[in-house]
Structure formats: structure tokens, C-alpha cells
Amino acid sequence: MSNRTLYILFGTFVVLTALSIWPLIQSYIQKSQNPEDFRFSEFTVDDVSRIGIAHDGDEKITLTKDNDGWRVNGLVASDETVGSFIEALSELEIGELAATKAESQAQLGVTDKAGTKLTLLRNDHDREDTFIFGESATNPDESYVRRTDGTDVYAVRGVITTYLSFSVDDWRNKTVLTVTSK
After folding, report:
1. Which of 55, 53, 56 has its CA nearest to residue 64?
2. Distances from the Cα of 132 to the Cα of 102, 148, 181, angstroms
3. Nearby residues of 19 by Cβ (< 8 Å), 6 or more positions away
4. pLDDT of 33
């Protein structure tokens, strides 16, 4: 057998192997672009009963829903602001998979000690979802996010980071007096 024949056989083997594993590669790419664990669009004002926001070393903000509306750390919160936040959360666009290894999390600001931890409790108390939002990605409306129970880090697009930086006062209802006409 000549060298030329060996090269042709080897090239044919490589091409056939690549064609046979292509469906696996394609499935991995699709899973990375549409991660099942990051369905932000499922969150609605009616569905969420508690929101927790914690920054490294900063105060923790807890928004809870009761019969009278939303409260922030026990004070009356602005229902409009909370509604806008949940709407912004549900409109987040999942971007590319940025990292899969825990070693990369520090660089992207999504470790347990860095970043902003967002916890959402649903009304049925059946499921609590916790995410860590980290550094800005390529522009101010992009950041990195991972679930606390996973290692995959994704880029997300949306105005969510603005809300995550709010103080307790930013969440409060600042209405002093409401006057209605008869």
C-alpha cells in the first residue's frame, strides 16, 4: 500500500467520523444557546411572591408580596417598580455560553462571594430559583449570569443590572398623599 492510499483512507476516515458526530455537536450547540435552566420569561408579577437581592458586603434587599402589595424590607414598596423589574427579568435575552468551568467564574464575577445574588420564590412555594449576576459583558446592558446550583455561565442582554443596583429607597413607594376627586 502506498503513502498516497494511506492518506486517502485516513482522510476518508476523518470525514466519516466528523459526519457521524455532527449531530452530537449540533445538539450541544443548541443546548448552549437555549439553556433549559434560564427561562426568565416564565417569571411574572402574579407568579413571584418573594425576591431577594444580595450584594457582596452590602445590605440585603427582600421584596415580599402580601395582600396589600409589595414590601421592601418591611416597608411599603412601589408596585410599579417591582412590576417593571419582573418585566425586565422576563425580557432578558440569553446570549452565548461564556464558561462551563468553575475556575472561570471569578473572572466573570459570578462566584458565591462576588456578583449579585438574585433569589425568586414562586407563589406556590414549590420552587426557588437563585442566580448570580456578575460583570458586564460587552456593553452595559449585558452581564454574565449563572445558577447557584450550576457551573454554566451565560451572557444575558437586558436592563436587569440597573434594578439589581437599587437601594431600599429606590424600591420604596414614595407617594405621600393620594387625592381622588368625587
Report:
1. 53
2. 13, 7, 46
3. none
4. 46
Contact call for residues 77 and 71 (beta carbons, < 8 A): yes
Distance, CA of 65 to CA of 42 (rounded, Å)? 18
pLDDT at 132: 93
Instruction: Provide block-wise average pLDDT over 10 residues at a time, the chain (182 residues).
Output: 83 84 63 64 89 82 92 94 94 88 89 90 83 84 89 90 91 82 78
| Residue at 68: amino acid letter | D
Q: Give the full edge-to-edge strand order of the sheet including 142-147.
A: 75-76, 69-72, 60-66, 48-55, 116-122, 128-136, 142-147, 153-157, 93-99
Q: What's the Cα-to-Cα distance from 160 to each of 4, 20, 133, 145, 156, rounded to whole Å?
A: 59, 41, 9, 11, 9
What gap in Å lies between CA 141 and CA 92, rounded to an integer? 10
Q: Which three cell numbers stand for residue 132?
A: 448570580
Q: What are the two backbone dihedrals, phi and then psi, of residue 154, each rounded to the nearest 5 degrees?
A: -120, 155
Measured between alpha carbons, how far is 10 from 164 in angstroms, rounded to an integer? 55
pTM metric for this prediction: 0.76
Q: Say what the pLDDT of residue 89 is.
A: 94
